[in-house]
Amino acid sequence: MSQFYQKIITEKSWEALTVFKKQFDFILIGGWAVYLYTHALKSKDIDIIALIMLPDFDFGLYQKILDSYKLTHYIPSLVMILDETREVKELGLNRHYFSQKKRRIKDELART
After folding, report:
1. By the 8 A CB rule, do 29 and 60 touch?
2. Confidence of residue 21 (pLDDT cuts 50, 70, 90)
3. Separation of alpha carbons 105 and 82, rounded Å
4. Residue pLDDT, tens place only, 7-17
């Protein structure tokens, strides 16, 4: 493992992941997902699909985590993903409400 990533980086990444897991529902993809499945190579980054569309998503807590782990540089990418997302069928929202929800989320992200 150390040949790919420095131990301090994977430890910080794992610590952030465990904090996220305690606070949010999300879908984990990428290296840490593979690690949890195979117990092989760890990861240095956290690839998640956050469920920020849910009504009880706590943006204040999200901001604290982003700040404490110095992850705020990901916000523009999240906004871009929101812009490109047209629909999430599992949420059962009509297009108009979905558009309004995206706008509110982008406003929240702009404050972070």
Report:
1. no
2. confident
3. 9
4. 888 888 888 88
